[in-house]
Amino acid sequence: MRKGRVPYQLVEVLSCPGGCLSGRGQAESETGGRVDKALVQQMEEVYGSLPVRLPELNPILNTLYQDWLQGQESPQASKLLHTEFRGQSQIHTQPPHMEW
């Protein structure tokens, strides 16, 4: 990334099993690493001003479901687009040297 050879601007790595909440995607001040309340307020105003569009009215999304996923309720759509919460006790990929 530093050499400009890839198109990415941000790569987020979740080091906790199952990912971490309140990670690097937070609105922090440039100095001190604390939440910047003014920035959060500005972001809420911008996001609140965006128009709400229902996904079921999007023709491209409907084409995706019909042509690639065999319908919205298909096993293929459920497998590829749905997930479920797993508590930390259910995740067994933790290396033995890590304690959470």
UniProtKB/TrEMBL annotation:
<protein>
    <recommendedName>
        <fullName>Iron hydrogenase small subunit domain-containing protein</fullName>
    </recommendedName>
</protein>
<dbReference type="InterPro" id="IPR003149">
    <property type="entry name" value="Fe_hydrogenase_ssu"/>
</dbReference>
<dbReference type="Pfam" id="PF02256">
    <property type="entry name" value="Fe_hyd_SSU"/>
</dbReference>
<dbReference type="InterPro" id="IPR008953">
    <property type="entry name" value="Fe_hydrogenase_HydB"/>
</dbReference>
<dbReference type="InterPro" id="IPR050340">
    <property type="entry name" value="Cytosolic_Fe-S_CAF"/>
</dbReference>
<feature type="domain" description="Iron hydrogenase small subunit">
    <location>
        <begin position="33"/>
        <end position="89"/>
    </location>
</feature>
<dbReference type="InterPro" id="IPR009016">
    <property type="entry name" value="Fe_hydrogenase"/>
</dbReference>
